[in-house]
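task queued by scheduler; priority normal; single chain, no ligands, no partner chains; default sampling; output format set to C-alpha cells
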Amino acid sequence: MVNIRRLADHLNISIGTVSRALNNRPGVHPETLEKVLKAAAELGYVPNQSGRALRRGATNTIGFVIETGHPAHQSGDEFFYVVLDAMNLYLADKGYDLVILPCHSADDPVEFLSRVIARGIVDALVITATRRVDHRIAMLANSRLPFLTLGRSETPGDYSWIDLDFEGVARRSVEEAVRCGHRRIAVCLPDNNVALGYHYEAGYLAAMADAGLPVDETLMMRIPTSEEGGFSLGRRIYDMAHPPTALMLCSEVTAASAYAALRECGIEPGRDLSIIGFREMPVMRFMAPKLTCFQLDLQALGTLLASSVLDLLAPAQSRAHPRGQLVGLDFFPGASLHAAPAAAIRERA
C-alpha cells in the first residue's frame, strides 16, 4: 500500500506539496498537481482515513445502532432494510458514510455505546428501540457526541427524536372499531418496556374513554413481539369467558401468526373477530381477509432520519434546537374489520 510519504519520495516532492495537491488546496502549480494525481493513480495511493479524521476532527460517518437477537428482527420484517437504504442514499449524496452498529439484546447497551464513543468512529449516532426509561440516552446526553433517537423516551435530556405516532394509530383503531359497532375491543401490547407500547396503550385508553366504553383489564394483553407471541393469542382468546369482538395488534410481526392461531381454534378473522393491525408489510398482501392496518412511507422516514441527524452536525450558530417529530401513518381499510355481531350492537345500544 502506497502512503503519502512513499508517494512524495517517488516524485521527489515534499510531503506538504503532495498533501496540498491531493486535497486540492491552493498554492500548487498546475503541472505539479497533474503529476501528483497521475502518480497517485498509477501507484495505487490510499489515504490514511484515520489520520485524516484525527486532523479534521470528523469521520464523515454516521452510526445507526440496531438491536439484534430479538425475535421480531428474525420474522422477515423489511422495516430497517428500507429505512437504512434511504438513509444511505441521502448521506452518500452529502459525502457521508452510514455504518450499522449491531448491539445484541444480551449485551449491555450502555457499555456498547461507551466503546463506540471511545473509538471515535462516527460523527453522530441514531439509536433505536428506545425504552420508557433509557439509560443510553442519559449517557449520550452527557457526552459530546450528537445523537438522534428513533422513538421517544421519558428520560430527560436536550436531544432530538423522531417517532411514529403510535398513540394516533391506536386512537384511530378504536374509533374505526367503534364505528363498526364493537364494544369489547382487545389490545395486544409488547411484554417489555419498549416505549412505543406505552404510547399505543395511552392512545387506546384515551379513545375508549372518548367513546364512553369501559376498559376491561382482561382485554389488555401483553405478548412477545414475535410470531410466537401472535400465535399465543388464538388459545388465549378462545379460553376467554367473554371474548372480544375486535382485536388491535400493536406489532405488525404478530399478524400472520395470530390469523393462523385463531383459525386453529375455530375463530375466523374478520367474521368472528375483527382485527386491526399496525403497519402494513409486504407479506400481508397474501393474508385473507385483507388486514385493516396503517401505511407508512419507509423511504421518507429514512430520508427524514438522515437529514435530521446531519442537522445536528451543523455549526452551532445555525444548528436547529433539539426537537421531536411525530410521523403519522395513513389508515388502510381491509376486510378484517367487520361489523360487530348483532348481539354486541344491541348491547351497546
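post-processing summary
- The two ends are 80 Å apart (CA to CA).
- Residues 55 and 219 are 59 Å apart (CA to CA).
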